Description:
Strands 2-1-3-4-5-12 form a six-stranded parallel beta sheet, sandwiched between helices. The chain folds into two domains: 2-127 and 251-279, Response regulator (Rossmann fold), CATH 3.40.50; 129-247 and 285-349, Response regulator (Rossmann fold), CATH 3.40.50.2300. α6 (158-174) links the parallel β6 and β7. By secondary structure, it is of the alpha/beta class. α7 runs parallel beside α8 (217-225). It has helices at residues 2-21, 40-52, 70-81, 95-102, 129-143, 158-174, 191-203, 217-225, 253-264, 293-307, 335-339, and strands spanning 25-30, 57-63, 86-89, 109-113, 122-127, 148-153, 179-184, 208-212, 228-230, 244-246, 248-250, 272-275, 282-284, 318-319, 325-327, 348-349. Residues 1-22 form the signal peptide. Keywords: Signal.
Amino acid sequence: MKKMIVGLLVLFSLAFAASAYAKDVKAAFIYVGPVGDGGWTYAHDQGRIAMAELPFVTKTTFIESVPEGADATRVITGLANKGYNLIFTTSFGFMDSTVEVANRFKDIAFEHCSGYKTTANMGNYFGRFYQGKYLSGIVAGSMTKSDNIGYVAAYPIPEVIRGINAFTIGVREVNPKATVKVVWTQTWFNPGLEKDAADSLLDVGADVLSMHQDTPATLQAAEERGKFAIGNDSDMRQFAPNAFLTAPIWDWGVLYKEFATNVHNDTWTPEEIWAGMETGVVKLAPLSDKVPAAVQTLVAEKQQALMEHKMQVFAGPIKDQAGDVILPTGKTYSDKELLSMNFFVEGVQGSIAE
């Protein structure tokens, strides 16, 4: 009996110690665009809302439309000084600012989205969005009648280039004659400029559009012209119900709830996370009923193969724009090579902007 009582006291002490170290989570988010953009920032904010439902998350806040650079450093520092113990910076261009502030506030957990740097208290996270881009390329290649597909692209960074290439691989897998013409906007959020770029692609015969931007402007251009379009970051069908075919989308709540739980339990450590579709972070929006059943079946089969690691998007043979084999049969690119991708594959029309 005495041993049992001692054992119960030990268990109680351990439970009390664990609860004593459990932290309330106060989380802050830095956004590069407005939460109403319908895409990138909207998706991150949906993740914040999901995380905020956890009982130990006592406060969340966000600051939207923060310019990358010195302004970001100032904003992140301000939040660190206000007592937030988990800070998310959600654009590639916030990376160096996050490193700078993290090095000054060692007791705060920082998470940076889409970058490659870490510190003792700063992790980075992203998803294998190119998997969704590849699947949406299969849809686009199947739906084009002109074999002319347009792509409105933001900045020529590896993330965007990788997505264009994955999309084009999907297109050419089902339609080897199709090409993907790229127009750069050099912006993440500029609906007017994005729409102009989309219109320029429609003017030269594109009948399906895709994009890597933060707003639905490209889809709206396609809607006005009676053409098809692929969304980005979130399910954008409400903005172009007739044009919308599908979209690679984010479910950031999967990671945000995990990070908050780890901070709460005092088990958070900085990691480099690149989550695939099997985690649920990256998804494909439900396909439009305009997409034939056979194409829907093919996409579902390919998605399952990706999730089970039975195939790779970037598997040889892969040719460059000149038609030369740059990845032979039986080879795949490493994550390091994918993360630094700076070339276009065969089938892409356009050059990588300065």
